[in-house]
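=== Structure Prediction Worksheet ===
Name of assembly: unnamed complex
Input type: mixed (protein and possibly other molecules)
Chain count: two
Listed entries:
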Amino acid sequence: MLEFMDYVQAAFHAQGGWNRDNSYSSLTTTAHNLLDFQIPHGLRMHISSLSSPNFGTSYTVGSKGVVDGSLSFLYTSLGLSLPARSRTAHLEGLVQGYRHLAALRPPSQTNWTEVLRGGKTIRQKDSLLYGRLYLPTSTLEALYLRRISPNRLLRLNGVSDGSLPSGGSLLALLQNDFGKYSTEYLYSTDSSLIGIRGLYNFGYDPRHPDTLSGRPPAHPWDHQGGRLSAGAEVYFSPINKSGGVSTGLRFTTLPIHTGFPYTMTLTINPLMGNLSSTYAVKAGRNLAFCSRFDFNVYSYESDVMVGVELWQRQQHAPETAWARRLLRPDWPQVEEEVNGVLKARVDNHGKVGLLWECKLKELLVSLGAGVDLKKRERMLGSVGLEVSYSS
Amino acid sequence: MAFNFNWSPLIADTDRVRDMLTSSLNKSPKPPIIVDDILVNELNLGSTPPELEILEVGDLAEDRFRGIFKMSYTGDAYLTLKTRVQANPLNTFLSTKPSFASPQPLAASSGLTIPLQITLSDIRLSGFVILVFSKQKGITLVFRNDPLESLKVSSTFDSIPFVRDYLQKTIENQLRVLFMEDLPAIIHRLSLRMFNSELQPADDAEKDATNDQVPIDPLASPALQAMDGSGDAFDAAPLSLDTPTETYASFSQKNLLRLAALSESQRTLSLFTPGMRDTVFRAWASAADRNEPSNGTHTPLHRPTLSRMQSTLGDQSAWSSSAPSQTSEATSAASRPSLASAATMPSTYTLGTNSSRTRPRKRKHRIVNLRKDKTPEDATDGTSVSSGYNDSASRSAGTSAEPSMAETEPTTLPSYISREGEISTPPRSPKKKVDFKASSDGGQNHDRNATIRARPVTPRNTAVQLNVDNDPTPRASMYLPEKQSQEQRPPLRRQPLPRMQTVPTPVHRAQLSRSTSELSLRGMPPAFESSTGGILEQAWMMKMASEIARKVSEEKAKQGTWRLRGSGSSDDGLQVGGEAPPAYVSRDGFAL
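=== Predicted Assembly ===
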């Protein structure tokens, strides 16, 4: 489940019309959501509030042996309108599952807020400021987001922690989204790490939308109902004289696809000989499967992980069943409210992760457990409960 | 002073060290690059021992030691570790960073674990080491500073500078922790294991091994000191050094319990005898039995001393401290005379038995030498005996010293005494007749003889001497017995010490010539030197010598009486005379 501040940030991106999926770093978001979900550890409670469309606060108290907590504040220049209350928040927005990719839009069509100032319309450069202080450890996190232009986003992440070598680190990330392709440039003060990421979408070019309709596929992978993307990333640290490279491919179905949605990815790390392939299927409205296979051609190490996601929806009241039956099928139907989500994963090392996230009255509850089937004496690795309330 | 640092056995037993290293390496949180347990694959301590320079010795005894060393090591030891490491530098780099500000690469940080073999070689150490050794508490070794100077880490990743540097740095840090924290613990545990096994007296085999090293005499030695104590506290002190440790080693809890049980059984009608290996039981039920070892005559004295000895040992006070206590004990023992001896007899007996068991070989050697020596001539005996015990060098010293020795005897000393005792004891046993005579002779003088009768062995040697001595000197005097006892006791401890050898001759000759104590002093130093190569020992000897000289001078005043007694220094006479009233002595002798 997304933390409140991440929820607000997602809303910031959505409202500003920033497509977060058109980036190489989010190539495997679906598999990540279905397989690498976070299992809460210990007891944790969040109390959050979006007191105004521009300002949010969140407090966290947790206990896993020792009591710790954090205070976080968020300010955004973009007035957010999102169901922030835990009572009204939709679980679909809070729980990240199978990710449906939308059709690409030309960057000019992104929601770009314009304000009238001095008789001229000025495109407002939305920004977001976020800070979080972890109390016992005195670690400070700061985030600065700024939409420099409709297709450019600047992101600054900073961490201040006395235990870090230089007292903290700073990461600057510049993202360019041109629809057809996107690029990212990053720099980290930690050993001066420099990185470049790029993603290219084959087929449909949103910059020339007229070619969309009725055009025969130019090549076999120019799938009308899906999108093939390829990307790569390169990192280099001049101080460490070390770096990293990876390339990836993704094919995912688009909403116009008539069959069940699915997503396939393949990422390769040529330096380390690592191959990772994922396959995720949205088998039904409430069910999604995902599998991942990792293989290293140098060490012959392999991993397999399988995950499932099950959505539980609120049943309609039986009193209104007769009325619904009278609705015509082509009329827009109201989706049933999601009550809870069950996520489970298991890998070939016998590690099982279970997570149940639900809405309980006014609270958002997530209950998770990690089980190691190979450890007979201590099968139950970690159990956690998180309770969130926001107003 | 010098230490004999035996490096080769350390090389042999590396298995346990390897296990302990493995566990200690995996105990501390491992750096992120290491993704598996660290296994110590190979450990070779090399053929070059570290160089140790003694900076300070705070405490020194046979069973404990405290000192500060300056250690430098440039040997060829090497250590091979096996583990699996993360080969992707980006992975390890990011794993140490907070995730919030990490670039979160998609797949560039995917891991590649590689089995890694690391060889640590060219280890250069230099630092100050504090070493505390105690037989009960094991070895505690602490580095005062970070000893690791340099170290060569060679691994599979030498071609990748980042990984190599990282490994080098990480391993150096780990090793620093190991040296400062883990190694002391490992050594302590190891030493505890070793010493505990040795300390368990129940294990006869082990005991024997340990006991062989430890002279049986220690029991007697306290007595010697005590005697000296009456004369010279200082003299006793040096002796005590050796003795306390020895006694301690030879008498473990179990041993003492068994011996106690044995003595109890002999006091009563109980037929139960605790099983003791490598022990010869003699039929004599009387207290005299204990005498068989050289101690026999002295037994009464020994008893009290024993208890004291233990107490001193327990205190672990330095020998110096123990010395005074012993001296005081000696005096007390002397005061106690016959009564105490009688009561204590059984216990002493046990002690004697212990010593005999534990030290079978040493004893035998001595005995053989003594007999040979004695048979030829008394005068020659002294020299020959010394040679037997000691090297030729000591012997020569002994010969030179001998004449003087006789004179000095009374004041001098424990060392002489001890020798005499040793020498005398072996011969005694063979000549029972002599003993009887002696006992009869000395018996008048000494209380213990009465109880001792069994002891005939010891008396015999003394008897020969006694006869001579007694005749010239008045038996009745208490002093005489004391001196004798001194002589007897020393031999027990002294066995290990070569110096003693020279002494013995004087005893025999004492009868011949009891001229000046000074001469004995001269003789002493050479003996010491020969016996002790170590600086420390020499220093001790020097101190002792000076002390002895002083005491001699002091005693000279008293000597008039002492000499007479000293001449009569035969064991029986000595023991009894010191403390027991003449009447007792006479009774004992008659009883025998």
